[in-house]
């Protein structure tokens, strides 16, 4: 921000005009625009895929269903024979009401959710401790530098 200084002080610094920085800016904005335009192109493809997917979708995505067997861990043979087991390792048996078909649906166990929650909490606690230590070390370093600067200024008098 410029406040009543020379006009040349308000311009873009020369360090920002280095070829490496300009190339990085061009790369960044190129990737951003590619992502935006790519998303627009993909949305057209997704609508076509959604129409074909509706024809092959499982019954529980298209109609009402009743849970016949609660969420449970997949056993050895189920892991190989039921595709829904490979997603989370847990399945529930459901009965679709209109078509009266029995199918398996992947589900998330409360035990698994609790395990993931505590894993996340532990990670956040560890990161908090690490960054608190880094802040204390940095603050001590800055305090030492300020103290040395004041000491040198006093000694020079």
TrEMBL record:
<keyword id="KW-0132">Cell division</keyword>
<comment type="similarity">
    <text>Belongs to the JTB family.</text>
</comment>
<dbReference type="GO" id="GO:0005813">
    <property type="term" value="C:centrosome"/>
</dbReference>
<dbReference type="GO" id="GO:0005739">
    <property type="term" value="C:mitochondrion"/>
</dbReference>
<dbReference type="GO" id="GO:0016020">
    <property type="term" value="C:membrane"/>
</dbReference>
<protein>
    <recommendedName>
        <fullName>Protein JTB</fullName>
    </recommendedName>
</protein>
<keyword id="KW-0498">Mitosis</keyword>
<comment type="function">
    <text>Required for normal cytokinesis during mitosis. Plays a role in the regulation of cell proliferation. May be a component of the chromosomal passenger complex (CPC), a complex that acts as a key regulator of mitosis. The CPC complex has essential functions at the centromere in ensuring correct chromosome alignment and segregation and is required for chromatin-induced microtubule stabilization and spindle assembly. Increases AURKB activity. Inhibits apoptosis induced by TGFB1. Overexpression induces swelling of mitochondria and reduces mitochondrial membrane potential.</text>
</comment>
<keyword id="KW-0732">Signal</keyword>
<comment type="subunit">
    <text>Interacts with AURKA, AURKB, BIRC5 and INCENP. May be a component of the CPC at least composed of BIRC5/survivin, CDCA8/borealin, INCENP and AURKB/Aurora-B.</text>
</comment>
<dbReference type="GO" id="GO:0005819">
    <property type="term" value="C:spindle"/>
</dbReference>
<keyword id="KW-0206">Cytoskeleton</keyword>
<keyword id="KW-0472">Membrane</keyword>
<dbReference type="GO" id="GO:0051301">
    <property type="term" value="P:cell division"/>
</dbReference>
<keyword id="KW-0496">Mitochondrion</keyword>
<keyword id="KW-0131">Cell cycle</keyword>
<keyword id="KW-1133">Transmembrane helix</keyword>
<keyword id="KW-0963">Cytoplasm</keyword>
<feature type="transmembrane region" description="Helical">
    <location>
        <begin position="116"/>
        <end position="137"/>
    </location>
</feature>
<feature type="transmembrane region" description="Helical">
    <location>
        <begin position="21"/>
        <end position="42"/>
    </location>
</feature>
<dbReference type="Pfam" id="PF05439">
    <property type="entry name" value="JTB"/>
</dbReference>
<keyword id="KW-0812">Transmembrane</keyword>
<dbReference type="InterPro" id="IPR008657">
    <property type="entry name" value="JTB"/>
</dbReference>
